[in-house]
Amino acid sequence: MTDLIIIGGGPIGIACGLEAKKKGISYKILEKGPIVNSLFNYPVNMQFFSSSERLEIDGIPFISNEAKPKRNEALEYYRRIVTSNDLNLQLFERVTSIVKAGEVFSVTTPKATYSARNVIIATGFYDLPNPLNVPGEDLPKV
Ligand SMILES: Cc1cc2nc3c(=O)[nH]c(=O)nc-3n(C[C@H](O)[C@H](O)[C@H](O)COP(=O)(O)OP(=O)(O)OC[C@H]3O[C@@H](n4cnc5c(N)ncnc54)[C@H](O)[C@@H]3O)c2cc1C
Question: Which among 5, 3, 81 has a CA at the least distance from the CA of 36?
Answer without folding.
Answer: 81
